[in-house]
Amino acid sequence: MHKYREYQLAFTLLELMATVAVVGITMTVAVPSFANYVESTKINTAILDITSIEAKIYRRLSDNPNYPDSLADIYAKVPVDPWGNEYRYLRINGGDKKGKGKKRKDHSLVPINSDYDLYSSGPDGRSVAPLTAKHSRDDIVRANNGGFIGKAEDY
User: Fold this and answer.
1) Which residues fall within 8 angstroms of residue 20, CB to CB, at 6 or more apart?
2) pTM tops 0.85
3) Domains in the chain, start-ordered, CATH in brackets?
4) 3-class SS at 121?
5) Do 120 and 137 meet the contact criterion of CB atoms below 8 Å apart?
6) In sequence order, what are the residues at sequence separation of 6 or more whose Cβ sits closer than 8 angstroms to the Cβ of residue 57?
7) Are 86 and 122 in contact (CB under 8 A)?
8) Cα atoms found within 13 Å of the Cα of residue 100, Cβ hemisphere only
9) What is the reported pLDDT for 7?
């Protein structure tokens, strides 16, 4: 009877292998899902930050009729996005949408804002003016003068 109890308390090699297989399968499903969740949380945080910065710019406009020249005009320290990069701002000064320069542009190379550009350079920390460029697709942008805030590839 004593030997029977010892046998019941120990795991067999087959049971141990089955447990390791189940844990492995669970991890292969859970880790990518968790990574996607973390990334979508960062994107949503950047969207909320841009919305907050936009609100602060409009509050400033109630006292001063001109858009700020930089985010440093309204913040002591320029806010950083969830990936550790400063948010980027370009004053367009209410001009028309036919301008040249560093303005963010859509797939037709038309500027996406007429008042100012405000965006995060996204997870890769790199960006160029056209939203269709490889380094700009993951950017979180403000477009249509605030009518859209989200991933550049979704605009």
Assistant:
1) none
2) no
3) 2-154 (3.30.700.10)
4) coil
5) no
6) 67, 68, 74, 116, 118
7) no
8) 0
9) 55
